[in-house]
Write a structure and sequence with these properties.
Elements lengths: L5 H16 L7 H15 L12 E6 L6 H14 L4 E6 L6 H12 L2 E3 L7 H15 L3 E6 L7 H14 L3 E7 L5 H13 L3 E5 L8 H10 L3 E5 L7 E3 L2 H8 L5 H10 L3 H11 L1
Parallel strand pairs: 1-4, 1-5, 2-3, 2-4, 5-6, 6-7
Antiparallel strand pairs: 7-8
Helix pairs in contact: 1-2, 2-9, 3-4, 5-6, 7-8
């Protein structure tokens, strides 16, 4: 019901059986909590869950329509808020208006961008972006790439070329949480061909429980590093395994809701409302 794949569900069940056999589960009421612990443990990427330190080159990849360009804009804003100098490279030179879209996000985030004409060589864009970053002392280089199917050998070859030429520190695969188990096939193929370093899960503000996230992590053994929770520029969050485990199991993510409420809570406004009520 949480959209966890069969292979992963079987693994969870086997682990649960092992725990029960050891006598660690004596009551049926303990099963749900134990499942949550197992799921959280499977989602935990350890130290690899965080993004690497600066300076770094981040290559953002994925299939069409998963929200790569939007995610890059949010990442740029996130890094800038941390006091880092960011530059974007518009290496998606094939999709109509992709460069314009990235320019809009660069303007919103207040960061630099390097772009060429539509149809230009993506490698040339990356080369110029890296050189510009060195000249301007940019700490973070984020490269947007064209959306491609994992079975498109010509387009995948382009990514392999960028990888070998520029040796990015991060190769982040953007996955749409709404596509279910198809995400597993996408992630496995991209990882097999490119050896990704991590995953960004988008569109978690929808009605998906995100069970595909668990299957993707289990099958690729790569950590989820960030999650997209909406269209706003601030709607990009760190990934917390225990919270995702609660969501997958239908327990809800109360902690994130509380944090969001605290972020939007205006103390002075609340006092004024209280005064008016009195």
């Amino acid at each position: 019901m949480g959209d966890v794949g069969v292979t992963t569900a079987v693994e969870i069940t086997e682990r649960l059986r092992d725990e029960a056999a050891k006598g660690k589960i004596k009551d049926a009421n303990e099963i749900r909590q134990k499942i949550k612990e197992i799921v959280a443990e499977m989602l935990d990427g350890g130290e690899d869950m965080g993004l690497i330190t600066v300076p770094s080159i981040i290559l953002v990849i994925g299939v069409n329509g998963v929200g790569k360009t939007t995610t890059i804009g949010k990442m740029a804003a996130m890094y800038k808020a941390q006091g880092k100098k960011v530059i974007l490279g518009a290496a998606d030179t094939f999709r109509a208006a992709a460069i314009d879209q990235l320019q809009i996000w660069a303007d919103r985030s207040g960061v630099d961008i390097i772009k060429h004409k539509e149809g230009a060589d993506p490698a040339a864009v990356v080369f110029d972006t890296i050189n510009a970053a060195k000249a301007r002392d940019n700490e973070i280089i984020i490269i947007d790439t064209a959306g491609r199917l994992q079975i498109d050998t010509e387009m995948m070859a382009e990514l392999l070329l960028l990888d070998r030429m520029f040796h990015p520190d991060e190769k982040l695969l953007v996955i749409d949480a709404m596509v279910g188990q198809e995400a597993v096939s996408v992630a496995e193929n991209f990882n097999a061909q490119l050896e990704i370093t991590g995953i960004i899960l988008t569109k978690l503000d929808g009605d998906s429980r995100g069970g595909s996230a668990l299957s993707v992590v289990y099958c690729t053994q790569k950590p989820i590093k960030l999650v997209g929770m909406g269209e706003k520029i601030s709607a990009l969050e760190d990934f917390y395994p225990d919270r995702m485990a609660s969501r997958i199991l239908g327990m809800g993510d109360i902690v994130s809701l509380v944090e969001k409420a605290q972020e939007n809570f205006d103390v002075e406004h609340a006092k004024e409302l209280e005064r008016k009520m009195r």
